[in-house]
Structures are given as structure tokens and as C-alpha cells.
Design brief:
The complex is a heterodimer of chains A (235) and B (278). Chain A is mainly alpha-helical and 235 residues long. In chain A, 83% of the residues lie in helices and 0% in strands. Chain A has helices at residues 2-17, 20-54, 60-78, 81-96, 102-128, 131-139, 144-174, 186-197, 201-229. In chain A, helix 4 packs across helix 5 (102-128). Chain A is elongated. Chain B has helices at 48-55, 80-84, 102-129, 144-161, 177-189, 207-222, 234-240, 258-263, 268-277; strands at 8-19, 22-33, 37-41, 63-68, 71-72, 87-90, 195-199, 226-230, 243-248, 251-256. With 278 residues, chain B is α/β, with parallel strands linked by helices. In chain B, helix 3 runs parallel beside helix 5 (177-189) and helix 5 (177-189) packs parallel to helix 6. In chain B, 40% of the residues lie in helices and 23% in strands. Classes of the chains: A mainly alpha (235), B alpha/beta (278). Chain A binds chain B through residues 130, 132-133, 135-143, 146, 150-151, 154-155, 158, 231-235, and chain B through 56, 58, 81-85, 88-89, 91, 93-100, 108-109, 112-113, 171-174, 184, 187-188, 191. Bound molecules: adenosine-5'-triphosphate and magnesium ion. Residues 48-49, 200 of chain B line the site of magnesium ion. Adenosine-5'-triphosphate is lined by residues 19, 22, 24, 42, 44-50 of chain B.
Amino acid sequence: MNGFLVKVERFIDIFINQGGYNEVLGGLKNTILIAVSGLIIGIVIGTLIATVRVLPKYSRLSRALDKFCTFYVGLFRGTPMVAQLLVFYYVMLPLIGVKMTSVSVAICVFGLNSGAYISEMMRAGILSVDPGQMEGGRSVGMSYGATMMKIVIPQAIKNILPTLGNEFIALVKETSVVSFIGATDLYVAFNYIGSNSYEFMVPYLVMAIMYIAIVCIISFGIKMMERRLRKGDRQ
Amino acid sequence: MTDSKNKDLIVVDGLCKDFGDNKVLKDISTTIKKGEKVVVIGPSGSGKSTFLRCLNCMEDPTAGKIIFGGENIADMSVDINVHRQKMGMVFQHFNLFANKTVIENIMMAPVYVAKKNIKKQKRDNLLIKLHLKKGEITPVTASMPEIKKQAKEKAVELLKRIGLEEKADAYPSSLSGGQKQRVAIVRSLAMEPDVILFDEPTSALDPEMVGEVLELMKELANQGMTMVVVTHEMGFAKEVGTRIVFMDEGRFVEEAAPEEFFANPKSERAKEFLSKVL
Ligand SMILES: Nc1ncnc2c1ncn2[C@@H]1O[C@H](COP(=O)(O)OP(=O)(O)OP(=O)(O)O)[C@@H](O)[C@H]1O
Ligand SMILES: [Mg+2]
């Protein structure tokens, strides 16, 4: 027990007196930045893909788009996130000769990756909305796209909010893989503190607690949002 | 445009509709004049809903023409949305927007159309300025807040008309069936349509709520609205209809004024049908 207290003291010393908290704050910022931006990009991409996939397949264009989307989703769901990060950072970027920070690369890859997952959720969500909603919109003269954006997709998002929340939580936890391309996230920050103090027990414990805290905050936020969106349902 | 009574509003010419091998509508031709109240009746599966839904191209006709507003709207190159704004539709299951309040439901289409028109006007002006298009620049005078305000005033007026102004900010799920259907009817009225299509508007309602919806429909009829109504309410058909269309197996088997049709139906099918429902 004494040993543990010593370790805690050592951690506090590094964390506060030697500026370790800067490292952690930076890591926390990146973790949240990557997860939130990834989620937003993912929702945009996922919604676009889902819309294409529920489109009536009359024209050749819509069939070609559908094929492309199937390929995209298969690609991103069929490979691990680490591999996507590494390929993007060490293969794609040098090939096309573009310089990007590792955090922006992480944001892109997280967005592209979660777009694939969210598209499947969103498709289920769209299909769960009563087809009468689309008919109602079309019957008053609104276009397919406008009815989709204003009527169907908001209801689809409400229906899939719990799964969307899970995806967000998964993204937050998965940010730990960005260390592979040299970005600092929460895990890297605590790892840094650990290696500076030759003591990993307390830093990792605090890290786990921080992850749990973030997840709790997200879960709470989602619950509040669900309650707000449920206004339209029968009480 | 003149408002003369005998103007042809919708001309249906050789309308056919197949679902795969199932020929649901077989060569239907008819003309619906301004102010007419056409009531479509017939056995289940005879194609009544499909006929109605072909009128505003919710189902694309397989063959034939639907002339409305001077255009063949069955033609895929026509902007169908513009025409649907003048052709209201009321559904059996209301189809109110579940994520919008009652008043938002009513304001939705008018605001959407106004917004679209402003965008189009701005785009046209830009093209003219860039000499990519000929014409005069028409300054955009309408503003969105102003349009929203007007749409809201109109919506409140419509809600007052059906006695539901206190439900303006409620969501559809909190309304009774009869209230939902009355809101759905005024939602289509908000676009000031030339005709309203009703597909069994009272079939999903509890019996005690049928009356309030039929009452509102009668009111519209008395004000001269052109209506095409698919219904099993024979009382309403007799009282409000100016023409009864009896459909069977995808054809108009009989068309007549209600007094004549109900007193002495000509076809065997109609006689048989009436003996069951009356
Ligand atoms: N979207 C569709 N796809 C395939 N078949 C359809 C579709 N809609 C209708 N049908 C078929 O068309 C036929 C006519 O249907 P319709 O709904 O027009 O009949 P109805 O006269 O309105 O009947 P009801 O009184 O039961 O409403 C039926 O055989 C039905 O199965
Ligand atoms: Mg029907």
C-alpha cells in the first residue's frame, strides 16, 4: 500500500510540477479532435452513401454509384484501422507528394473509416422510417432530395442515435492507434509520463479513468439528445 | 387563366399502369373539369388507389398521358414537383411529417417553394450578369423572414379554420386520427392547389372521427374545390359527388351522376358491388 502511495506521489510530481499535464491536455485535445471530426465527417459520408444505396435503381448512374459505395464500404470495413492509417500516411501521401500533419491524417482516416460503418447504420435508419413520410413530402411538391434531408434523414438519425453513440465511443477508444503515425493522443501522453518516471501503473490507471469519464460524458450527452428528439413521439 | 366552371383541369388519355406482369390500369381516359367532385368506388384491388396515384405521378404511368397545367406530366422530362404543388394529396394514413410540429407541417411546402424560387431568381440574375443568359435582371425583393412570417400567418389561419390553433406547436403523434387527417387536409390547402386527391381519407379512422373529416371535405366541396375522392363512404359519394366512377379490374366500368348511378346502375358488376356495400 505504501508502495502505491509513493507511485501516486511520483505521478503527481511529474503530472503537476514537471508539466506532465501539458502533455495530457494536448493528448486529450487530439483524442477529442480526431474522434469528433472523424464522427462528423463519418456522418456526412455515411449519409451520402446511405442515400445512394436506398435510391431507386433506375438509371445507370445510380447503379454505378451504388457499386462504388459497396466497394468503398467493403474496403474500409474489411481492413483494420491501423492498416488504413499506415497506408494513408506512409504510402498514399508520399505517392501524391502532399504534406499533412499526422493529426489531420488521423482525422481523414477516422472520417473515411467511420463513414463506412455509419452508412450501414444510416441505411437501416432510413429504411426504418415510414415510406409514407417520403410520399407526404413528394405529394406537396418537395423534391426527393429535399424530403430526404428535411424529413427522412432527421427521423433516421433519431432512430439510430444509440448506435451512432456507440460508434462515437468506439472512435474515442480507437484513437489510441494514431500513435502508429506519431500523433499524440491520450495514450501517448500517459505513455510519455510513464516512461519519464519509469513507472507505468498510476499513469495507465489515470488514463483508463479518463477514458471512462469521456465515455460517460458522451453517453450522458446522447441520452439528453435522445430525450430532445423524442419530442415527436407519442408520450 | 380564367376560372370558368367548365375548364378541363386534368385530362387522362389512354392511361395504363403495369406492376411487372400485373396490368393494374387498362387504357383509362377521362376528363376532370374544374369544380368537379369525382368519387371513385369499386372493389378492393380494382386499381382505385393506383389510378389516383397516377394522376400526380406518385406512380409513373406505364403508358398514356396526364395533361395538367398545359403539360403532359406523365412525361419524365417535366418537373413534376411544380405540378404537384397545385395537386394536393390526402392519404389514408395521413403521412404528416413526424419530426415537425403541426404548424411546421403546414408551412413546410410554401416556405420550401418560396426559397427555391428565390434561389432560382438569384441564379438567373447571376447568369444574366455574366452574359450566359439573355433577359432582364429581376431584383430579388422577397426575404426569407418575410416569407416565413406570411407562411406562418396563413398556417395559423388554416388551423383556426379547423379549430386546432391551440395544437400549432404540438407534434402529430399527440393528435387524434381525425385531427391528423384535418391537419393533412389543410397542409395540402396551404399550397392553394387546383385539385385535391383523396385516397380513402377516412378508412383509418375510428368511427366517431369520420364525421369531422367528411365535414371538412364537404366544406371544401361547397367552396368549389375540385376533388377526386376514393372512398367507401357511399353517403358522402351521394351527397357531395358530382360524378361517380365505378372501377373494376383496372377499367372505368361505369361513370354517372350519383342519383343515376345509385338508383339504377347499368353494369352487372356495379349492381353486385352496390348490393354488398349499401
Ligand atoms: N407498388 C405496387 N407494386 C406492385 N403491385 C401493386 C403496387 N400497388 C398496387 N399494386 C397492385 O395493384 C392492384 C390494384 O391496387 P390498388 O391499391 O390500386 O387497389 P385499390 O382499388 O385501391 O384497392 P383497395 O380498395 O384495397 O385500396 C392490386 O392487385 C395490387 O396488388
Ligand atoms: Mg386503395
